[in-house]
Amino acid sequence: xxxxxxxxxxxxxxxxxxxxxxxxxxxxxxxxxxxxxxxxxxxxxxxxxxxxxxxxxxxxxxxxxxxxxxxxxxxxxxxxxxxxxxxxxxxxxxxxxxxxxxxxxxxxxxxxxxxx
Amino acid sequence: xxxxxxxxxxxxxxxxxxxxxxxxxxxxxxxxxxxxxxxxxxxxxxxxxxxxxxxxxxxxxxxxxxxxxxxxxxxxxxxxxxxxxxxxxxxxxxxxxxxxxxxxxxxxxxxx
Lengths: 116, 112
Description:
The complex is a heterodimer of chains A (about 120) and B (about 110).
Chain A: E1 4-7, E2 10-13, E3 19-25, E4 32-38, E5 44-51, E6 57-58, E7 67-73, E8 76-81, E9 90-98, E10 104-107, E11 111-115
Parallel strand pairs in A: 2-11
Antiparallel strand pairs in A: 1-3, 3-8, 4-5, 4-9, 5-6, 7-8, 9-10, 9-11
Chain B: E1 4-6, E2 9-13, E3 18-24, E4 31-37, E5 43-50, E6 55-58, E7 61-66, E8 71-76, E9 85-92, E10 101-102, E11 106-111
Parallel strand pairs in B: 2-11
Antiparallel strand pairs in B: 1-3, 3-8, 4-5, 4-9, 6-7, 7-8, 9-10, 9-11
């Protein structure tokens, strides 16, 4: 199957700093990528849909100025958590939509963010 | 609104069958999925079923769909310790690349 990578896999930062997480589709082009957030022992909640070359679509309750999404190429989307606070600590997972030979969504391995 | 529910925990003995259940509320869902998540990892798509199907079998996995009751189940035959993980059902309208709504997740523990 297709491969989606995330970088970094784990990050610890101080409160008030900004953190950028990258999501890459390694062997296919993805015009659409999704960003999810998962709290411990909970389900995945969709934060936003990232569209190549246009603005991201945010889910209700997700602050777009807090979670900046950039999808500048067909293989890369970035999520920047701005002015991070301890409550932003979570597991962030991206997925990329592969429309070649079908329509399938492949998930990255996730990024564990801890804000001190 | 969309709401997908699962039981939180299931414990089985190695070699037994596991049945993980899921109920959903969005009758317009066209695809239903089962994903597996191991600790600290992303999601692995196990199988999916189109909403006009009742059953799908793929090796040790059997998916049953009762569209009338909006009930989905995943049966794992001959459960192994490597099957221990969290299992999520998910629904979407349209193809697999569309927005997914995930269930609450079921932690499967396989004991020797």
